[in-house]
Amino acid sequence: MDTAPQVGGPQAKHSQSNEPQANHSNRAQPYASGSMDNKIKQILCISERRRDKEEAIARGMQTKFQSAFDKLADSVKRGQYSNATTVASRIGKLKQEHRSIARRYEIDAITGDDQKVKELVLTEKPKVKEAAETLYGAYVIETNRNDLEPEEIWKLYMTLTKVEDAFKALKSNLGMRPIYHQLASRTAAHLFISVVAYHLYGAIALSLSQAGDKRSVHSILAQVSTHSRLNVTMLDDNKRLHNLRISSTPNSAQKEIYSILGVVDTLARTKKVIAQL
């Protein structure tokens, strides 16, 4: 009997596609691309967001590789490395350290009449580069859920992201760890508060989504973190000690967030005489 695919488990596997189809959507577009046998279905997905991310990563790696090559080429030109064996070893090390980008290039060592290496020449392999860039943003999901449509399978697979985000939020913003309590009851209370906080976290995410706001809750919390509640204590001329509780003025971005979340009024300003000196 077929069961729901377990993302990352034996029921569903993720691999890079060899023949991606062009797509320019802001979200992943699943395609039914056949099956390995009667039980396993393969879904080809193409994501523009993922493609942009992989392109950015590749550009960064390209910059590092080019910088490393220029440094080695300069050393060869200055005569620091001239022995063919040594230069070949340095080239091999360069390719090993930047293998994902280096495979797109050919590095030739130019020698002189004395068999000393005089120069390094870097030549691009257009076909290799094009083949690699074609795969940006493409991935394949394999599942035994033949009863589901490609869109449904993709949505199930994407629940992995939500699970990962939940654990990340609990361990960072919501303070689930570290736990310094020694008693089991206090540890349980700590975890309970974190889980309750995550429910609020989820409610914020839902409100943002319904309002068409694509920002993550993490970025929202970062933006409102500068809106503070302050406690000011001062002494007047009559030796009375006053305690003021005031809120800082929210900026335009914070007001927009409060409007989306339905926050009508911030905490009111309070004033209290707490002592007569």
Shape: extended
Mean pLDDT: 82
Compute the gyration radius: what is it?
29 Å
Q: Helices and strands, in N-to-C order?
A: EEEHHHEEHEHHHEEHE
Structural class: alpha+beta
Number of strands: 9
End-to-end distance, in Å? Answer: 79 Å
Strand content: 15-25%
Uncertain runs are 1-26
Count every helix, treating DSSP H or I runs of 4 or more residues as helices: 8
Estimated helix fraction: 40-55%
Largest beta sheet, briefly?
4 strands, antiparallel
**Arrangement of strands in the largest sheet:** 1-6-3-2
Question: Can you characterise this structure?
Answer:
With 277 residues, this protein is of the alpha+beta class. The protein has helices spanning 48-77, 84-97, 99-102, 126-134, 150-171, 184-210, 217-224, 252-261; strands at residues 12-16, 29-35, 41-46, 105-111, 117-124, 138-143, 229-235, 240-247, 270-276. The strands form three sheets. Strands 1-6-3-2 form a four-stranded antiparallel sheet. It has a three-stranded antiparallel sheet with strand order 7-8-9, with no helix packed on it. Strands 4-5 form a two-stranded antiparallel ribbon. A hairpin with a 4-residue loop joins strand 7 and strand 8 (240-247). Helix 1 (48-77) runs antiparallel to helix 2 (84-97). The longest helix is centred in the N-terminal third of the chain and has 30 residues, at 48-77. 13% of the residues are buried.
Provide key terms for this protein:
single chain, 277 residues, alpha+beta, 4-stranded antiparallel sheet, 3-stranded antiparallel sheet, 8 helices, extended, disordered N terminus, RNaseH-like_sf
